[in-house]
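I am writing to request your help with a piece of structural work I have in hand. Thank you for your consideration; the sequence and its tokens are set out here:
=====
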Amino acid sequence: MSEKKILEERSLLLNRRSFLGKAALGAGSLALGSLMGCEFFSKDKNGLITSTSSFGSNKGILDSLHHASKAKRVIYLFQSGGPSQLELFDYKPTLIKRRGEELPESIRNGQRLTGMTSGQDSFPLAGSVFDFKQYGSNGTWISDLLPYTAKMVDELCIVKSMYTEAINHDPAVTFFQTGSQQPGRPSMGSWLSYGLGSENKNLPAFTVLLSRGSGRPNGQPLYTRLWGNGFLHSLHQGVQFRAAKDPVLYLNDPKGITKESKRAILDKLAQLNDKQYDEFGDPEIQSRISQYEMAYKMQTSVPDVMSTDNEPDYIYKMYGADAKIPGTYAANCLLARRLAEQDVRFIQLYHMGWDQHDNLPGAIEKQAKDVDQASAALVADLKQRGLLEDTLIIWGGEFGRTNYSQGQLTDTNYGRDHHPRCFTMWMAGGGIKPGVVYGETDEFGYNIVKDPVHVHDFQATMLHLLGIDHEKLTYKYQGRRFRLTDVEGHVLNDLLV
């Protein structure tokens, strides 16, 4: 390091020491106020009081939103494994009429296949064995596999023209969650925590719930890095809530530790960490202090929000019988509503089991039953509580499935391989137009013919609804300014209210 650089760093640390020394009394007063639940004023650029907020909540890096927001929070119902759009949303009579015929080369056009089907001698077209009907004011086609979703189709914006470059699970899921097929980038929830912070001082801004589906119970695994903070401070990583006696690992104190002694330990630990920060200036030390304080607060807040014992019977009936079974998708949807009520910023649900390369008819019927009623109930429940208008709900997987059969095609059985060229997702609430079907695929369900939507377009639109310009929420790392949408992405204004 050059002498000039050393002097600059030392000057910065000296200035920091001076500031911390003079501000100690004020900071102590603010901390005391936070513990006592006091509120503090925030002002606009003209010095006018605009609102009050708790000092204890975690503020994001953005001083203000880039534009007016429609959504305050996101519930992302991620369907891991790649749901087949052809069995659920994208009705294709041509595939039924031409069942068993070869996929025309003019349609495939030499496009990439996975290693699981590239060696097949035949690519027989396979129409869905499940019926479709039209629902809602626009006559939207929905599969018989999704009767509850069909009833609330006028609340949904169904996008049939999603596409991605990733053709295998791990890079495809990573791409959706982080904006890159390579691991190591911050996840969506981490970007929002970094940019907007938390509105609840007792719960993390980014929470994660996992469930395993009945379609393929031992299917593709998920990795904790999918909700990791990447190169952002560790304060912004997702916190996984488990269906267990201890919802968050290592949160509870050992026997013999009282609330008062724990408070004293944390106070002394904070003093030591402050001394380290004063010496080294590493911002990760501040993140560590914040994490200790959040864990302390979560000891009370997490058991309260995770317990659904006080929910009325009609709510359990709305979400389905599985809502009383911890760890199921239905139970997690109910918890998502409770977390939304507590103003958690980003609530991520992962539901595994959609990777159906064989025995698709039997597997997808079970898998759809796992999610159909609870997904629809979540939309309805938020709406009846006045929360849907500022909560963005997202439902979808990492890619779609092929229109031809993987393996042998019979009258009652077939499988489908991965298909990144076109697939379906839906969104609801949070400034999204309801009752809309956006995008169109060809009669074979293989290529997009109208209004393609890339993964980065979807991410840019989500950030826009939250009041963020996706090109301006950046983090400088290793000499480059990174963002969720990398160097791409366009806001889909046609989908916005």
